[in-house]
Amino acid sequence: MDVQEFREFGKAAVDYIADYFQTIRDRPVLPSVQPGYLDDLLPKEAPQTGESWQDVLQDVDRIIMPGLTHWHSPNFHAYYPTAHSFPAIVGEMMSAGFGCVGLSWMASPAYTELEVAMMNWLGKMLHLPEEFLNCSEGPGGGVIQGSASEVTFVCLLAAKERKVKELRQINPELTEGDIKGKLIAYSSDQSNSSVEKAGLLGSMPMRLLPADDKGRLTASVLLDAIEKDKAQGLIPCYVVANLGTTPTCAFDDLNDLGPVCNKEQLWLHVDAAYAGTAFSCPEYRHLLNGVEYAESFNFNPHKWMLVNFDCSAMWVKDARYLVEAFNVERIYLKDNHKGLAPEYRHWQISLGRRFRALKLWFVLRMYGVEGIQKHVRNQIALAQYFESLVRSDDRFQVCTSSMGLVCFRLKGDDRLTKNLLEKVHQRRNIYVIPGQFHQRFVIRFAVCSRITERSDIDYAWQEFLSQAEEIVPCSKGDIGEKKGIAAIGLCSAACEKICSEKSK
Amino acid sequence: MDVQEFREFGKAAVDYIADYFQTIRDRPVLPSVQPGYLDDLLPKEAPQTGESWQDVLQDVDRIIMPGLTHWHSPNFHAYYPTAHSFPAIVGEMMSAGFGCVGLSWMASPAYTELEVAMMNWLGKMLHLPEEFLNCSEGPGGGVIQGSASEVTFVCLLAAKERKVKELRQINPELTEGDIKGKLIAYSSDQSNSSVEKAGLLGSMPMRLLPADDKGRLTASVLLDAIEKDKAQGLIPCYVVANLGTTPTCAFDDLNDLGPVCNKEQLWLHVDAAYAGTAFSCPEYRHLLNGVEYAESFNFNPHKWMLVNFDCSAMWVKDARYLVEAFNVERIYLKDNHKGLAPEYRHWQISLGRRFRALKLWFVLRMYGVEGIQKHVRNQIALAQYFESLVRSDDRFQVCTSSMGLVCFRLKGDDRLTKNLLEKVHQRRNIYVIPGQFHQRFVIRFAVCSRITERSDIDYAWQEFLSQAEEIVPCSKGDIGEKKGIAAIGLCSAACEKICSEKSK
After folding, report:
1. Which of residues 113-172 of B touch A (CB under 8 A)?
2. What residues does CATH 3.90.1150.10 cover in chain A?
3. DSSP alpha helices (H): ranges in B428-472?
4. For the domain bounded by A374-503, which CATH number is listed?
5. Is residue A244 within 8 Å of A250, Cβ to Cβ?
6. Which residue among A97, A186, A476, B107 has the highest number of C-beta atoms inside a 10 angstrom radius?
7. What number of other Cβ atoms are within 10 A of residue A426's Cβ?
8. CA–CA distance from B81 to each of B300, B321, B371, B433 (Å)?
């Protein structure tokens, strides 16, 4: 493909994406393909000779599009939002266009330096303590990683490094193996699976301690666990606190946990993967209070901050522990500017690095801080609107509501809610996933797409209502009596509409 | 930014990339900025309100471009090639445009299924043994990872899992900790730093055994190390063989190493990050012989196969060890199609996944197998041409030449070659990096850019010659005598030209 063809293909692809996004609301959010669908549509081997881009682009439409789950459809309410914005898409494309691999400062100074600057911008936007920032005097700093999973793991390794060093200073006769075999980590049972995985990857058992009734890990529970482990000769090392858990978006209280971690010399890592973006709004910043107790902090601009996946922002108070854990220098990587710019390859798992700072820069400049705040506030308002709809119907109960996430269920046996979720899934008009809260089965409803509007929330609620009607009919209709199912209570105005239509 | 603005911005960016690539030959390959250059050019904080894309694109030109090292300049001969092609760039953009996160089959069936198919296409192109392929009956399969670093680490963890399971079956009284603390891994001292890093990350000491005079790890050296470790009560577990080492592109002989690994029940991982693409050419496929002894194999389409970073292809004979090492299931990730399509999140570190299969598909279709073979052969021919130039000048010696990489030096003391490299670096006309071979300092000259031509090789050679002339003048000129430096031998025709010009 020559440059001229690239101009044509690239622009056709831009139009394809634009058209896709303009029609995304009308597409069924979930695909209807079965596992193995692609098998029949593709040749078994790569073609021997090249094909035209026009043919390939047609096949994207024919083969790929039917197998996409439309994460940016306003009817996508599963997981948490994953970021998607036009500035970020163009940033990703230009990064690919330059195609450098930022494995050292010299390998492309702009890669490292824009990342340093963007991590300062982000950190200031969240009012992170100065000592976390690259622009501070000390050994702290920020870096872009690929995911919160990587971050949690990388910080675990740094914590291990620090603990080994600390204990060997006190007891020089201890071997690294003696110490490493006894290290132990903690988080709450509400933490993301990636936290447990970090323990597996790093060979440090991760105790998932019971959260309180608000989904929070408390200092007293943590302290109990620490005491028990110490009594058994284990060495507490690492704590992962959650600001915005995956199941219910619960917030650990850092002012509660932090002093324990500091006193016990545990590395406190704070994971705010989703909710971190909200700390850019003054009204939510208090949830980050106590972060000064932490050694590391992470949130994902690729979740709520409109920067396409992947872009996970991580800060540490002392980057030297990372560098010491990972540094495997070779002659072909030697540079002559040590100390003047960070060598980020020592801060992460891989050697190579994409230019992820570019899309971050594009988003921050083209949205501005106010644009991001507006986006956060809009999504929270939509979630609150959904919550009000759920509360208006007595058959339902809201279990939790926090940020852009509402967890709710049908009152009564879990089977009712499971049944509801199944019905909704089968219709494929909206996409939600299950969760658990206090051992009860709940439906997680997250406001995800950037283009979700109030009418989309109404649409989703109608979807739940219409299916709930089949399970627990509204007492105002006559369907319930016919089916012999006891109606639970008064239902909402929206439900009344369904009832009256059904009664006709 | 609305959709219409995205159309304009996206197309302007396509043109920007196209223009960049059309002028890349004329740009100095290395930037002339100093560490910290960006600090003065950027505000200290993110803007409060959004700015126009036109302003941002202008700033890319003003701020970013001067800080880029042009990896795709035909004067870039450092490291190894990193892939860059127009189909891949558009693939990356469309992947960002769809913006799904492939954390499960249901999260976007096309993501998983295209990856399954592409890993089959690639595996067949390389004539990998059937048992590695997704389309085989057994538990083997291929997956796209972000980097060879990740792969080497992930396979180390799977090897650990397998060894623990194996030993506990024989000795149920052994604890996991007993075993894990004694595991040991091996590779050659020629392996990439990422191999040593994998050992650090996975808490398994990585012995870097001395390679032979051709840069290869031999079975006898490996066996010696294994015996010594076993005698000390350690448990040999994991071997990383290199097909194309980073320093000199040396190839371990898998038919030599493989039987030892099998006999000793070590997990043999084969890393062909750069050279793997060449196995698509029948004349180089023999270098992969013996891969049937391996448990896992990896090469990076993002190096030589024209698929932009990141895209690292990994195959395993038995994926169950990965799944068992990493599986941390949660209710919000449950799916109902188990067994019909792989859940790739259990094959890797992170939970989320980009749609990297798309750019791979674009490249394979638009180049075809023949296009990739042609690219490989062309770059090898250019390296051989460079080698012939070096050999034509008696002041130089070629230390190794393999695939697209030539390592060479000035005869005599290492300081001469170091001096040469320094001078060449200072001029910033070409970019090469140092290496070591047999304890001697060498210059690594790799043919990297897709658009490198014979004239670019001539240009690079002239660059070396002109600077060598200042260090070891050609005996035919009179400059050497004036400076009192002993000339070493006859020089090439190209050098003669310089000499005669200087003598004028």
Report:
1. 113-114, 116-117, 120-122, 124-125, 135, 146-147, 149-150, 153, 157
2. 374-503
3. 454-471
4. 3.90.1150.10
5. yes
6. A186
7. 10
8. 11, 32, 17, 13
Q: Find where tokens 């000129």 sit.
A: B477
Q: What Å distances lie between residue B154 and A18, A193, B257, CA to CA?
A: 38, 17, 21
Question: Nearest-5° angle of CA A293, CA A294, CA A296?
Answer: 160
Query: Do the Cβ atoms of B88 and A96 come within 8 Å?
Result: yes
A97/chain B closest Cα distance in angstroms: 6
Q: Which residues of chain B does CATH 1.20.1340.10 include?
A: 3-82
Write the pLDDT tens digit of every residue in A383-407. 999 999 999 999 999 999 999 999 9
Which chain A residues are Cβ-neighbours of B102 within 8 angstroms?
Answer: none
Q: From the CB of residue B369, how many other CB atoms can be counted at a distance below 10 Å? A: 19
Give phi and psi for B357, each to the nearest 5: -65, -25
- Let me know: does A116 contact B42? Beta carbons within 8 Å: no
Residues 30 through 89 of chain A touching chain B, CB cutoff 8 Å: 30-31, 33, 35-39, 42, 44-53, 55-56, 60, 63-72, 79, 82-89
Question: Which residues make beta-bridge pairs with A444?
Answer: A407, A433
* Beta-sheet strands, E only, within B134-266: 141-145, 183-188, 206-209, 235-242
Backbone angles phi, psi at A68, to 5 degrees: -95, 140
Q: Report the distance separating Cα A475 and Cα A470, nearest Å.
A: 12
Of B87, B101, B149, the CB nearest to A350: B149
Q: What is the DSSP letter of A477?
A: S
Mean pLDDT of B105-134: 96
Looking at B196-266, which runs of residues are DSSP E strands?
A: 206-209, 235-242
Confidence of residue B138 (pLDDT cuts 50, 70, 90): confident
CB atoms A99 and B308 under 8 Å: yes
Domain B100-354 listed as CATH 3.40.50.11690: no
What is the Cα–Cα distance from A410 to A488, expressed in whole angstroms? 10
Residue type, B348: Q
* Beta strands A396-402; B433-437: pairing state: unpaired
Q: A229: closest CA among A184, A163, A265?
A: A184
Looking at domain A101-354, its CATH class is: alpha beta
Q: How far is CA A395 from the centre of its chain?
A: 31
Report whether pLDDT(A3) > 70: yes
Residues of chain A with CATH 1.20.1340.10: 3-94
CA distance B273 to B293: 18
The residue-averaged pLDDT of A159-188 equals 93
Contact B359, B424 (CB under 8 A): no
Model ipTM over 0.90: yes
- The token pair at B364 is 């394979």
pLDDT in tens, A422-464: 999 999 999 999 999 989 999 999 999 999 999 999 999 999 9
Kind plus residue range of the DSSP H or E element containing B396: strand B396-402
CA distances from B229 to B166, B222, B408 (A): 19, 11, 37
Q: Which fold has domain B3-82?
A: dopa decarboxylase, N-terminal domain (1.20.1340)
Residue B482 has pLDDT above 60, yes or no: no
Tens of pLDDT, residues A299-331: 999 999 999 999 999 999 999 888 888 777 655
First CA to last CA distance, chain A: 63
Pseudo-torsion of CA A20, A21, A23, A24, nearest 10°?
100
Q: Is the dihedral of CA A340, A346, A351, A356 positive or negative?
A: negative
Could you give the residue ranges of the DSSP H alpha helices within B81-134? 86-98, 109-125
CA distance B288 to B278: 10
* Amino acid, res. A294: A
What CATH code would you report for A3-94?
A: 1.20.1340.10
Cα radius of gyration (chain A): 25
